[in-house]
Amino acid sequence: MLNIVILAAGMGKRMQSDLPKVLHPIAGKPMLEHVLGTAQALSPQQVVVVVGHGAEQVQTRYPAQAGLVFALQSPQHGTGHAVQQAVPALLDDGSAQDATLVLYGDVPMVQAATLERLLQARGNGVAVLTEFLGDPTGYGRIVRGDDGTVQRIVEHKDASETERAINEVNTGILVAPTAKLKDWLNRIDNNNAQGEYYLTDIIALAVADGVPVQAAQAHAAWETLGVNSRIQQAQLERLWQAELARRQLEQGVTLADPSRFDQRGDLQCGRDVYIDVGCIFEGTVVLGDGVHVGPHSVLKDVVVEDGVRIEAYCHLQQAQIGVEAKVGPYARLRPGTQLGAQAHVGNFVEIKNAIFGTGSKANHLAYVGDADIGERVNIGAGTITCNYDGANKYRTVIEDDVFIGSDTQLVAPVRVGKGATIGAGTTLTKDAPAEQLTLSRTHQRSIEAWRRPVKKT
Ligand code: UD1
Ligand code: CA
């Protein structure tokens, strides 16, 4: 049985925040959620999150459920004390496979593949994830014996000069046999420089009990970086974004500049996708083959079909864009927008909860909300669907092949019949019949004798 304990009780003082540290995001998602996701990927029987500072906020955000429980650590007396609080929730059936893996809520980007290797490395013993650092200051050092085996971990504050020269450090992540771990945790004390119960002290106890201790390393250095400050959060964000950019490039996506790419969710790209600088992808975004995304666009939960061009500065949310459609520059597609194939939505057009049929166009300055637009419709500049009377919303229906002249207001509910033309400047308050020209306009007149007023002296 595999248990995973996630330490998340620390205060995170250096974040200078009211939000518990583990709820601060990397790539748009709380750090703890990254760790919970990675933990789930290992199919554990039990996940125990040790909470303390901000416990309520953490538990509200991630409610306990089958396989996910919380243990409260208050006050905090060290990492060993923290794991002790999780002990009552640990599952073991006495088999040699029983193991408990300890992760940190503030070391969010460790990857499942690395943890799988750590679990492999342990055999039936203990394994510690270690790292070699140019400057190991502050970290626990891995003390190895003459035969090269791990003997114990000494914290920086307790280390001698010779021990401080060791550059192999403890990342904090380790795995141990569950029953033995419980026993060792009962035997650690706080006679050390910090007066804390160190989880790291179980290593020497394991060695004394003849349990082998292995060390393994992560694939990439960023996997074991912890976040204790906004600076470290920002640094890890960039490292993780560089990794996400690298993965997209590897899949054949062109990024105009991989260092100006932000993926805060799931981004699936087809073949020959081009993404210009400064774009932000949130939620789940799907880009079909040959899609072009211009600079500085924000796409959240959108599906973009093959051959679509999104020009600069677009904001798209919960929208679906059909094959070879053109969007932007400066277009805003709000939730419920569905553009058909070859639709065109140009600059300063806002669309909400509306369907555009194949080949329909709104090329400039329009608001189209709560509308069903047929095929090959042309919506002129300045057109507005008046969908809201201050209390309720109504739909506008525009059938196929309609031409809406510029500066038209469609006061919903209203329907424009197939092939109709609406004259520029019309305020449409009644349905417009198919194939006819409808317009509401006062007759134009000129006053010959009119003179401009003159300023009084
Ligand atoms: C710990 C390790 C050290 C390692 C370093 C890596 C120990 C004794 N030391 O040191 O060997 O090199 O991590 O970053 O384990 N936490 C609790 N409750 C507590 C104390 C800590 O939940 O009482 C949590 C913190 O929220 C954090 C993690 O444990 O997520 C590590 O705590 P931290 O104080 O950063 O450990 P270090 O002293 O840096
Ligand atoms: Ca730390």
TrEMBL record:
Residue numbers binding Mg(2+): 106, 228
Gene3D superfamilies per the UniProt record, alphabetical: Hexapeptide repeat proteins (2.160.10.10), Spore Coat Polysaccharide Biosynthesis Protein SpsA, Chain A (3.90.550.10)
Reactions performed catalytically: alpha-D-glucosamine 1-phosphate + acetyl-CoA = N-acetyl-alpha-D-glucosamine 1-phosphate + CoA + H(+); N-acetyl-alpha-D-glucosamine 1-phosphate + UTP + H(+) = UDP-N-acetyl-alpha-D-glucosamine + diphosphate
Binding, acetyl-CoA: 381, 387-388, 406, 424, 441
Pathway terms, separated by semicolons: Nucleotide-sugar biosynthesis; UDP-N-acetyl-alpha-D-glucosamine biosynthesis; N-acetyl-alpha-D-glucosamine 1-phosphate from alpha-D-glucosamine 6-phosphate (route II): step 2/2; Nucleotide-sugar biosynthesis; UDP-N-acetyl-alpha-D-glucosamine biosynthesis; UDP-N-acetyl-alpha-D-glucosamine from N-acetyl-alpha-D-glucosamine 1-phosphate: step 1/1; Bacterial outer membrane biogenesis; LPS lipid A biosynthesis
UniProt keyword annotations, A-Z: Acyltransferase, Cell shape, Cell wall biogenesis/degradation, Cytoplasm, Magnesium, Metal-binding, Multifunctional enzyme, Nucleotidyltransferase, Peptidoglycan synthesis, Repeat, Transferase
Quaternary organization: Homotrimer.
Taxonomic classification: Bacteria, Pseudomonadati, Pseudomonadota, Betaproteobacteria, Burkholderiales
Protein known as: Bifunctional protein GlmU
Cofactor(s) in the UniProt record: Mg(2+)
Leader peptide range in chain numbering: none
Binding site for UDP-N-acetyl-alpha-D-glucosamine: 7-10, 21, 73, 78-79, 104-106, 140, 155, 170, 228, 334, 352, 367, 378
SUPFAM superfamilies the UniProt entry points to: Nucleotide-diphospho-sugar transferases (SSF53448), Trimeric LpxA-like enzymes (SSF51161)
Enzyme Commission no: 2.7.7.23, 2.3.1.157
Organism in which the protein naturally occurs: Alcaligenes endophyticus
Region described as Pyrophosphorylase: spans on this chain: 1-230
Localisation: Cytoplasm
Any GO molecular function: UDP-N-acetylglucosamine diphosphorylase activity
